[in-house]
Design brief:
Layout: H1 2-13, E1 35-36, E2 56-65, E3 72-82, E4 92-105, E5 110-127, E6 130-148, E7 151-155, E8 161-170, E9 175-189, E10 194-207, E11 211-223, E12 229-247, E13 257-273, H2 282-285, E14 286-299, H3 315-323, H4 342-352, H5 383-391, H6 410-419, H7 443-455, H8 474-499
Antiparallel strand pairs: 1-2, 2-3, 3-4, 4-5, 5-6, 6-7, 6-8, 7-9, 8-9, 9-10, 10-11, 11-12, 12-13, 13-14
Length: 500
């Protein structure tokens, strides 16, 4: 019996860092140090009424141009076209992506027109513990003209070079990426002077259901004017969902209030000219610009049957999860003491991270569906969620049982939700945690629990104890899922902004 138990633990906690099938929208700001308004995260209603992804999107755009020897702000649009459907269907290949920027500064009688097209090659890297996409982009065409005051700068495409390469790590719930950029843009001014704009740096970010960030740092050298100019550019773009309670009025209405979800976006560009230019004012040497987009609001379903939580410490967390349709069980008072089982917790994770379970909910014969775990057959209502988690490499195993109905312990739950967001590496093997009952933490859970503590989303019971092997009630499980969502809304984006 002991041998079987150890085997089951291996099946549940042998995680990988791969799984989601939709890659991130990389390059929403372009790759020249400007910023765009970006795109919103999907609304909840899109789970029921899908919106076809746009191959072409046009967004508000701003950029600071330094080619004239001083910073000039441009405002206009960026139009991005990507024919990248192949990336979700093939193990390798290539696709085209185009960036068209049209912007102006009317006070300076200035215009910026840039068109660049890449052929981007890609391939997947698979193993038991990772799924990544490696990309490398080659310029097909690059046309650019800048007009400032009475001077025109035309790009010499023959002598200009552009290198763009990146890697995207697909964890079960979050996509993380980093792109390296290096280009040398050679311009010929209308007075025949040659000016080179040399730029090198990185654009990095993440994408997940509750927030996404794209940020970067670029170092730019401008050679050809009387004085060489060096600039550091720090662009960033954030989109996130926040949630608030809206009390209803008038009094005679069938519900007290609703939870609303607010979709927010904000972009900023900070720059700093690091070379000596006495003719420039302090505000021109270092400044920033922003794009703030109008918020969108969506009403969420009204949770009902939760009166038994009226004075309970978990009331708000559970109400939110029911409004978001992450908790779906018919509410009942026993949820405050009834154990959350392992299968139901995986379902919560799948719903919280918007993992696509439709593959296992179609109408094909149940006899044709694969069976990985002996206690999770196609007629089990948890089958779509367990199999989705298996495909995402969140869990793995062949021919054994998942122990789907067994109560989940605190250390099991913590390990799952740290690893679903792919941040186990923040913990260190062999390190003692700060909890008073550290010796009770299983070796396979230690790294994830330490990572969660460092991230601020695992804090113990308030008395310094983690109680790692104590099982969770359904209400307790809901609260830690809500805490994870809060971190994915705000905490992770703050960590990225700190880098700036």
């Amino acid at each position: 019996m002991k041998k079987i138990y150890i085997k089951i633990l291996f099946l549940v906690f042998a995680f990988s860092v791969s799984g989601i099938s939709v890659n991130a929208d990389i390059g929403d700001m372009g790759f020249f140090g400007g910023i765009s308004e970006g795109t919103n995260l999907p609304k909840t209603i899109e789970k029921y009424v899908p919106v076809k992804p746009l191959r072409t999107r046009t967004m508000q755009y701003k950029e600071i141009v330094f080619i004239s020897g001083e910073p000039v702000e441009f405002e206009g649009t960026i139009k991005i076209t990507k024919n990248d459907d192949i990336i979700n269907n093939e193990a390798n290949g290539n696709y085209t992506e185009k960036y068209q920027i049209n912007a102006e500064n009317t006070e300076r009688k200035a215009t910026l027109d840039r068109n660049i097209q890449f052929t981007t090659s890609f391939y997947y890297v698979h193993s038991d513990f990772k799924k990544q996409i490696v990309r490398d982009s080659k310029v097909d065409s690059w046309n650019e003209q800048i007009v400032i005051d009475n001077t025109t700068y035309n790009l010499n495409e023959d002598f200009s070079t552009f290198s763009l390469t990146g890697v995207e790590d697909l964890t079960p719930g979050v996509s993380y990426y980093n792109n390296s950029i290096s280009y040398n843009a050679v311009f010929i001014a209308s007075d025949d002077k040659k000016i080179e704009v040399k730029t090198e740096g990185s654009i990095y970010g993440y994408d997940q259901p509750w927030s996404k960030v794209e940020a970067g740092k670029l170092n730019m050298d401008i050679v050809g004017n009387e004085d060489e100019m060096q600039i550091t550019l720090k662009p960033s773009l954030e989109a996130k969902k926040t949630m608030y309670y809206d009390k209803t009025s008038p009094f005679p209405i069938s519900f007290e209030g609703t939870y609303n979800q607010r979709l927010e976006r904000e972009s900023s560009l900070k720059y700093n000219i690091t070379t000596y230019h006495p003719q420039l004012t302090k505000s021109k040497l270092e400044n920033s610009i922003m794009i703030t987009t109008a918020k969108q609001i969506e009403k969420l379903p009204i949770p009902a049957g939760l009166d038994f939580l009226q004075s309970h410490w978990a009331k708000e967390s559970i109400e939110k999860l029911y409004s978001l349709e992450i908790m779906t069980e018919i509410p009942n008072k026993s949820m405050t003491v009834e154990a959350m089982n392992r299968g139901e917790f995986i379902k919560l994770i799948c719903l919280a991270m918007n993992m696509d379970t439709t593959k296992y909910k179609d109408d094909k014969s149940k006899d044709d569906r694969k069976i990985i775990f002996g206690d999770v057959l196609p007629n089990n209502p948890l089958y779509p969620y367990i199999m989705t988690a298996y495909d995402a490499k969140l869990i793995k195993g062949v021919g054994d049982v998942f122990n789907v109905s067994k109560p989940i312990t605190r250390e099991e739950a913590f390990s799952i939700y740290i690893r679903v967001i792919g941040l186990e590496r923040i913990g260190k093997l062999g390190t003692v945690t700060p909890f008073k009952d550290d010796e009770k933490i299983s070796s396979w859970a230690r790294k994830s629990i330490l990572a969660g503590y460092k991230l601020g989303i695992i804090q113990g019971n308030g008395n310094g104890f983690l109680e790692p092997r104590k099982w969770l009630s359904k209400v307790q499980a809901g609260t830690i899922i809500n805490k994870l969502i809060d971190y994915l809304r705000e905490g992770i984006s703050q960590d990225y902004r700190l880098i700036q």
